[in-house]
What does this fold into?
Amino acid sequence: MFNDRRLLLIYTIVLIDVIVGSAIGPIMPEFVKGLPNPQLWLSAGTALFLGMQLFSAPLLGKLADGYGRRPIVIISAIGTFAADCLLLPVRVGFYFANRLSDGTTNGMYAAVRSAITDISPKDQLFKNLGIEGAIISLGFVVGPMASGLLLTTFDVVPKDQAAYVTIMAVTLSGINMLLSWGFRETHANPPGISRQALKGELINALNVQRLWARLSEKSRRYHGLKQLVLMQLALTFSTGYYNYFVAYLSVGQLHMDAKSISYTFIYFGLLSIVINYIFYTYIADRINQRRAIFWFAVLGTPTLAAYGLVGTSEVMFYVVLTIDCLTLSLIQGLIEGLMAQLTTDEDRGEIFGINQAMQGLGSFATTLIFGAISLIDLRLPFAWFAGCLMLLTWLAARQLRRPVALPIT
It folds into this structure.
């Protein structure tokens, strides 16, 4: 199935990492239970996790270019294991400690996408990145399913459910830590980084203004890169609803419990797997990707708004979720594929790291915004998400009028 067997291990590591993250998602409300406005505390934890990537992702991406992808994958796996151990006491303080720790070392995806691009022939790039997207969707299915089976098999009482799921997450992240040691390097002859350059990179990573300057500098070499990153940023603003779902489904009009939330993620993930696999295996390489982004954004905008209008109807909610899988959920892989085509071995990890940092900034900002406006009305954040996808539509329309970009060598 895979021309390079390293892809199988990469996909396995990604799958387990997503399983761990999605398995603990439904129990997160337990950590802030009893606090006033629990949706605000959940949003704050998410903002902390994603905001930490603002400085850590470019640094880890640069290190992946200098020392190889393998060390960064190992560091990220160890960081996830340590962060999950912090959740064993089900207390709000440990919840925020986990978000801080896990966010700091969450550079795996910049390194993973660089590794996939390193070993993918040009004609298989969209397919391999698309399979990564399908693997992530599979993780969103297996994670809640594993939590549900664990709690059902052992008939765990509600007060102990969070602890049981956390123990499972620690075990799985420990397995991933061991698998990461078997990761074979994909970046031939990494040049290393001088101490002075590393110190400068750390300073730059803490400077948001410098982050934008670095993006502008890379865009002068890779024409069209900044536009793609801005499109990714607008998409990140709109997909903040992924992080809002747990709070909205549990506290909002649907009043779902942990089991129902798990079923939601299972359905969403299974459908996404099928759709992503078919689309990226048989369709993505045969269409105009930039035009597809535009139309998916056009159709996805009212879909996002509809989430806030489903009221108490679970049937309507699942209808909207299905349309979501067929439209805006396909945009991420298309943008990443176009971006990957602009990179070279020299600084691929750095570019993906800068992009991940911009996503971290966008996720941090959108989380603060939807957390604040949810205090007014729990449905209101979906108007914000829809507006952000409308911005992506406008950016995609502008991109269509530009010539196809190629890297300057």
Summary: DSSP finds 19 helices and no strands in the chain. The radius of gyration is 20 Å.
